[in-house]
Write a structure and sequence with these properties.
Elements (H helix, E strand, L loop, with lengths): L12 H4 L9 E6 L4 E6 L8 E5 L4 E6 L6 E5 L4 E5 L6 E7 L6 E6 L6 E6 L3 E8 L4 E10 L2 E6 L5 E5 L4 E5 L6 E6 L9 E5 L4 E9 L2 E7 L6 E6 L7 E5 L5 E3 L1 E3 L12 E6 L8 E6 L6 E7 L1 E6 L7 E5 L3 E2 L7 E2 L6 E4 L5 E3 L2 E3 L6 E12 L2 E6 L2 E5 L2
Antiparallel strand pairs: 1-2, 1-20, 2-3, 4-5, 5-6, 6-7, 8-9, 9-10, 10-11, 12-13, 13-14, 14-15, 16-17, 17-18, 18-19, 21-23, 22-35, 23-24, 24-30, 25-28, 25-29, 25-33, 26-27, 31-32, 33-34, 33-35
């Protein structure tokens, strides 16, 4: 008698057919016009705009660190470094003062996890500095351009950009020399403080462009032409905004556990993940590798770890217990192809469980494994990778 395959049918049909929600990245910022912090997101900036704690400091340079865990800002008046709680908006001085710079207009963290860049206007030119916001040590890289580069941001590949309110244009910036190269006019007559940051999920450059008198716009820059494409009119908010998108650079996530059995290739299947550990960033991609070629499979998840040998007649070991959810919705059942692997971009707000979908929250630990079809000397069977534990922040 052939061993039983782990069945697909135990997930409810309704849950399997439910489409994933559209991903949107959180934004935290400071409204320097009304002296308060705020939170919103890239999906619907104006309607999801929420006022947080009051903030009277002149925080014209803000950004999250590379893992999107800590939001830093430099006080333009005192050059003191502060951190901002992204949930409450409360700022806390770190006791660090940014050295060598005179007036910070922009701050951005490189995806390398250690390098920070600051744009600094000296009264004539805007200069680029590099260093470490946690120590306050910055050194001059070079002059970006004449006039005021009001904010800077770097994409996940290390490409740096700046927005000038002197000619209302977008610039690319050489991180080695500091030199700015004109890309093109934004199409907006920008005045005073401005906000700009990349969403590293897809390297879209978003901006809160202020045009004076409480008027402004939430836009996305065209990196080829420099045009700022309107997404929302922010005039109803009466806000002059600095902003940072809370998406971290992709890093290896989690810790592997449990023992997988060899599959028909002679290797044991592996599971890994990259992305951000910050739940609000909604940026996790699972990968299963060292699997048989052209085999179907899918990922499973649970908050409970376990070790069950040969469940349902499988040749493998199941490293999950408790309430197990299966990623078998539209497009989630994968084929290993000729590479012997498959991957899945997760929507953390639509995490499958036996009774429906749940949203993963900061502080929770979730475990993952991958089930796949396989063959053995007795015929068709199935197998599992090892387990992966991820604790979200």
């Amino acid at each position: 008698m052939k061993p039983h395959l782990l069945p697909f049918s135990t997930l409810s049909l309704a849950a399997a057919l439910t489409a994933a929600a559209t991903a949107q990245s959180p934004i935290v910022g400071v409204n320097v016009r009304l002296d308060d912090a705020f939170m919103s997101d890239t999906g619907d900036f104006v309607n999801n705009y929420t006022q947080l704690a009051g903030e009277s400091r002149s925080l014209f340079a803000i950004d999250f660190d590379s893992l999107a865990q800590t939001l830093y800002a430099i006080d333009n008046t005192t050059l003191e470094v502060v951190t901002i709680d992204p949930m409450t908006g409360v700022s806390t001085p770190t006791g660090v003062v940014a050295q060598t710079i005179t007036g910070a207009t922009g701050l951005t963290a490189d995806a390398d996890g250690s390098t920070w860049y600051v744009s600094d206007f000296d009264g004539t030119n805007t200069n680029l500095y590099s260093g470490d916001v946690t120590t306050g040590a910055f050194s001059l890289v070079g002059v970006i351009t004449a006039g005021i580069i009001i904010d800077i941001s770097i994409d996940s590949n290390g490409n740096l950009y700046g927005f000038s309110i002197s000619d209302d244009s977008l610039y690319s910036i050489d991180t080695g020399t500091g030199a700015g190269t004109l890309i093109g006019a934004s199409g907006f007559a920008a005045n005073f403080a401005q906000g700009m940051d990349f969403d590293w999920t897809d390297n879209t450059l978003y901006a809160t462009i202020y045009t004076g008198g409480g008027t402004g716009a939430f836009c996305a820059f065209d990196l080829v032409t420099g045009v700022a494409n309107l997404i929302n009119d922010t005039t109803p908010l009466n806000a002059e905004m600095e902003m940072a998108v809370q998406v971290g650079a992709d890093v290896t996530l989690g810790d592997n556990y449990c023992m997988a059995n060899p599959n028909s290739t002679g290797a044991t299947g592996d599971i890994s993940a990259v992305g951000s550990p910050v739940a609000a960033s909604n940026d996790v991609t699972l990968n299963a590798s060292s699997l048989p070629n052209n085999a179907f499979g899918f990922f499973l998840t649970s908050q409970t770890q376990a070790f069950t040998m040969n469940p349902g007649g499988s040749s493998g070991n199941l490293c999950l217990g408790g309430q197990i959810g299966r990623y078998v919705g539209p497009g989630q059942i994968q084929n290993t192809g000729m590479a012997g692997e498959f991957s899945l971009v997760l929507d953390l707000t639509q995490t499958p469980q036996p009774t429906g979908f749940v949203s993963i929250q900061a502080g929770e630990t979730w475990n993952f494994t991958a089930w796949h079809r396989d063959t053995s000397g007795t015929g068709a069977t199935s197998n599992f990778t090892d387990g992966l534990e991820i604790t979200f922040q």
